[in-house]
Amino acid sequence: MTAVLPVQTASQTSYRTCPRTGLQFEARAERLMIVNAFTAVVALLVGGLLAIGVVLTRWPAIHWLPADTFYMVLTAHGIDMLIFWIIFFEIAVLYFASSTLLRCRLAAPNWAWLAFALMLIGAVTNNVAVFQGGSSVMMTSYVPMMASPAFYLGLILFAVGALIACFVFFGTLVVAKREKTYQGSVPLVTFGAVTAAIIAVFTIASGAIILIPTFLMSVGLVKEVDPLVYRTIWWAFGHSSQQINVSAHIALWYAAAAIAFGAKPMSERVSRGAFLLYILFLQLASAHHLLADPGMSTSWKVVNTSYFMYFAVLASMIHGLTIPGAIEVAQRQKGYTRGLFEWLRKAPWGDPTFAGVFIAIIGFGFLGGISGVMMGTEQLNMLIHNTIYVPGHFHATVVVGTTLTFMAITYFLIPALFKREVMFPKLAQLQPYLFGFSMYFFCLVMMGAGTLGVSRRHWDMAFQGHALAYEWPGAAYLMMGLVGVAGVVAIAGGGIYILVTVASLLFGKKLEGGKATAIGTPVPRTAPSVAAQTYGSAGFAAPGTFVLAMVFLVSFVLYYFINWKYLGQLWGLS
Amino acid sequence: MSAIHPPAERLWWKHPLDRVEGTWIVIAFVWCMVMFFMMVYWHVYGKQNLSTETYKTTPDKFTAKAQAVVDKYTVRTETEQKVPVVAPPEGSDVYLVARLWSWWPILELEKGKTYKLHLTALDYNHGFSLQPSNLNIQVVPGYEHVVKVTPNQSGTFSIVCNEYCGINHHTMVGRIYVK
């Protein structure tokens, strides 16, 4: 006689199915997503207010803040925007991509709350240290310039919290597999989130390796951290922290294409292969931040920032084609088949989720991607290193690419996750254009000033009163003035996002959330469909996208060789 | 059915590539290889490649060597601080001290001639930014970086510090004359 034990079901949780989107939210995962996303928006608000100080000080005609305040504000702006806003939001994305898309419960919610608490305590600790005035060391905090111990401790606590959250995400994947809430492979968006989480583990490990000894140095327990070792390991952290963002925002691009159009990846194999190339090669490209440093061998630089980095570049070029391509295929199937671009003209440009994501894709590729490859080329890097071209590049990747994508997806989540109607819908429609296009212009003129040699992180380009002052050409002052104008407009665009988001959460009409039930429903099995091969032309399912890709390539090639020509005119170095 | 659902085809890795994707992958890969070879090509045929010659050093050791060159080759001083202007012979070692918040000494070089420029920071990271040429090199404390430089234009050049180094970072400007 055999006894059959009853299957242990998870206790004390419930599930609701959103009537508008069909997504199933587990109660505890939902709450954690909400608090992480909300905290992210708070960090964005703080970082955005600080951006006002930065922009109005670097604008030569205004030159608002005194030097000590400017460097403090710049340090906090960088950390709040590049670390806290983005990573809190990404933790919410990880929980969404696992618990919600796989329709399962969140693993270890108590650990997830601990992760959130550590991240919040760490963020506040770090910011308090910065605003106390003794830690104006920039986000990069290069030794031997030291910050107060609380600066490093705050970052370490934040990192430990983020690491725990990554393992909750991995644990949730295990739960979904074990409880069979889906069949076959995970969705592509979840696969992209796995990529981001794996890169995050590497990033946080690198951060720990360098920040813990530096923290110990700041309290006097470690005598010295070598400045060159610091830079090498810190950039494994700093560079890779931005590659978490790339993987996460590209996963969301696929999600937005699916949400807005029902778009399927053109080829799962190609898209997943590209994410795999990210895991293997994005981190090695951190070498491109060290190209102007002493002590790095030529072979190390060439291999890491050429051979290896270009596999990551290849992956980005693949995603840059496959996402618009998937949209085009889906649109052509709906009947928008005339000419190369009817599918694009008749896309839902009034939907801020789609508009934001598309503007992010174009800006990330043309502005951020191409400039990143210039910076990652050994010799060309000498034209760019520590100039304001560098922030021009990373504002294109992080602000246009990542932040605009996160903003766009928020407009989808307000009704789906927060169960609120979006307030000020006209403002929400306008916001991706105002923010996106002003940031395009901001990045262009910032990179223009950097091409003329203007320094980054520099309070006074006039070198007021100095006997050996260098006089920048008038064009450089014009560029920096335009950076100021574009920056103010972009901050207004960011402000609209915060207004719409916070107002919707506080005052938006409550929407039906779907009845709570104790048992979740797994992902339904779907039948394969015939691959679409009949709506394109010349054997191409997405000819319009291919044309856009060729425009991108031509721009890339021309700009690349223009930079080499410029380099060839300069002093000989060997 | 879409990127937010599991692939409908269980064996998604066997799905044939769309022609658009396949074509683009080939083009992108070829372009990446062109860029790879361009970096190598410039090492062979180009004139602007950053030296990798680097030594460990200390502030005392480097300062002593810099002072010796200043003592030997100073031709005049400039500014109220009487910064020495050093005109070293072709091919010789030239020392440039980066220290809060100045570059020292001022250099006077000749067009078309090559010098070995020794760079280090005595305190924090600094950035050697030669303007208006816009050549940028990181200057790291504890490391002496030896860069061979060959000016190809006459004129007055400025060295702007472009790595953040504290409250008066914006006053750290030096000069090089090329005659």
UniProtKB/TrEMBL annotation, chain B:
PROSITE patterns: COX2_CUA. The chain crosses the membrane at residues 22-42. InterPro entries: CcO_II-like_C, Cupredoxin, NosZ/Cyto_c_oxidase_sub2. GO terms for cellular component: membrane; periplasmic space. Gene3D superfamilies: Cupredoxins - blue copper proteins (2.60.40.420). The keyword Transmembrane helix applies. Keywords: Copper, Membrane, Metal-binding, Transmembrane, Transmembrane helix. Pfam families: COX2. One of its GO terms (molecular function) is cytochrome-c oxidase activity. It is found in: Periplasm. Residues 89-179 form the Cytochrome oxidase subunit II copper A binding domain. This is Cytochrome C oxidase subunit II. The lineage of its organism: Bacteria, Pseudomonadati, Pseudomonadota, Betaproteobacteria, Burkholderiales.
